[in-house]
Amino acid sequence: MRYSEMFLPTGREVPSDAEVISHQLMIRAGMIRKLISGIYSYLPLGYRVIRKLEQIIREEMNKAGAQEVHLPMVQPAELWQESGRWVHYGKELLRFRDRHDHEYCLGPTHEEVITSLVRNDVKTYRQLPRNLYQIQTKFRDEVRPRFGVMRCREFGMKDAYSFDVDEESAGKSYEKMFTAYNNIFNRCGLKFRPVEADSGSIGGKYSHEFMVMAESGEDAMVFCEKCSYAANLEKAEVACPEKKIIYEYDFLPLEEVHTPDVRTIEEVSAFLKVMPQDIVKTLIFNADGQPCAVLIRGDQEVNEIKVKNYLGATELELASDEMILKATGAPRGFAGPVNIEVRVIIDYSVIDMVNFVTGANKENYHFKNVNIGRDFNIEAFADLRIVEPTDNCPRCEGNTQFVRGIEVGHVFKLGTKYSKAMKAEYLDKDGQEKIMIMGCYGIGIGRTVAAAIEQNYDENGIVWPMPLAPYHVIITPVNINEKDIMKAAENLYNSMLAEGIEVIFDDRDERAGVKFKDADLIGIPLRIIIGQKNLLQGNVELKIRKTGENKLYSLQEIVQQVKQVIAQEVNSTIAVS
């Protein structure tokens, strides 16, 4: 492609509304333009990267036995009502009515549509397993779109859905997709890690996120230095500590203390002259309309996802002042487990505590010397808190590390969440009706491109991994007014096109410095510089964007040298898979 013919509006200024480097560079490099909040147009350079990624995905999905389909973006409300998500999905689901007053939504995901499709055409075990995927536009009405294409409202996604006869077969489908995802992100040249994750609104009991490691990442993840354990912060487990023997003769008498207008852990700690770890805070949650008390050590933080999963709740939120008053008999800030008449669950952090401080369920009062068993009973201890850097690995007791990452893919074992609700059934070998077992597998297309930039850039611009680069080579003649330079550049350009090399010919009448800056900004991996001095010796200069390395090659050997460098870079990522 000749640069003079390209729609490539690069810029030097950092956009004022771009918070992260990928957003800044995608705009400056002429890859995207914002239409309205959270909705972007992809320009030619950006769309070439998208297509590169999609091709890698298609190749690996096809290799894993999945088949490509294309499903409607507009989905009828009836399907979502069947699954139960029409009400529960929330305001991110953009609902609307057509001229006949029928209700629809713009698809944020396609579990309902694919389940409807398969249940209508798959009838027996002989037609299973099946794995169908698509690469398509989704819409989620994010309350706060940000970070460019990292978190936007309209976005591209690869989503796949597997259907199996039983859990064993579903496990095999899951492993195939897990392997395919590792291959995809390896081929993209990314540093990533699969981590255990919560399934969220998609459902299911088992899932992994694929996280590209980057300091700018929204999500924190925890991994073990010793074994393969890794999980995101929502899912990261805390091992149950070995319970010490506690003797009742160690218990001090329960004491009610007047604590006027003392509510927070900090205030209670200062007023009673105790450490936060000597206090047990009682948080009242609204779990599907019912109050529940969660106990945790005063210096720890509750993980609401763990609480929700432990309770099996569909909806969980901190209780309102009205619910707290009704459940405890006291206003917010004075709740405690003694004589409370709601379900109480308790975190591992309290397992060895004795003579601790709690609220007294009485305004302006707390208890000192509270003890489990004597003063209140519990159903069980559970892992209900957010993991901390000092926690050891829950699998092997090794040291853990915290790093930030960007979620680019997610694989789920859905089980029968949708197939049962929507009656996706098949006849087994004995002619008995059985429910299909499902899996779900997603990759954010734009997010992956943005994550690649977050991991590959410098002060001059993007540094594309070779497999995702929009073009592999840019030919830069230093002075287009020199006939011999332009002749050499034209010949080299045509030779590379003939060899199938993806190349830009920067034929603009611009200063060499401007061309160099643009080449660095858009991140082309290889730059061939043609100048008068080297050309007199029959040479051109090859610069590697990633390393900054410069070498001279003759005009006769440069094309083969470039092909070799490209092949090495691309094959090195394939070899990892």
Q: pLDDT below 50 for ≥5 consecutive residues: which ranges? A: none
Could you say how many structural domains there are in total?
3
Average residue-wise pLDDT: 94
CATH architecture descriptor of the largest domain: 2-Layer Sandwich
Q: Tell me the total number of β-strands.
A: 31
Q: What is the CATH fold-level name of the largest domain? A: BirA Bifunctional Protein, domain 2
Main sheet makeup: 9 strands, mixed
- From the N-terminal CA to the C-terminal CA, the straight-line distance is 31 Å
Beta percentage is 25-35%
Principal-axis shape equals globular
CATH class of the largest domain: Alpha Beta
Radius of gyration: 30 Å
The CATH homologous superfamily of the largest domain is called Bira Bifunctional Protein, Domain 2
* Number of helices in the DSSP assignment: 15
As a percent range, the share of helical residues equals 25-40%
Based on secondary structure, the structural category is alpha+beta
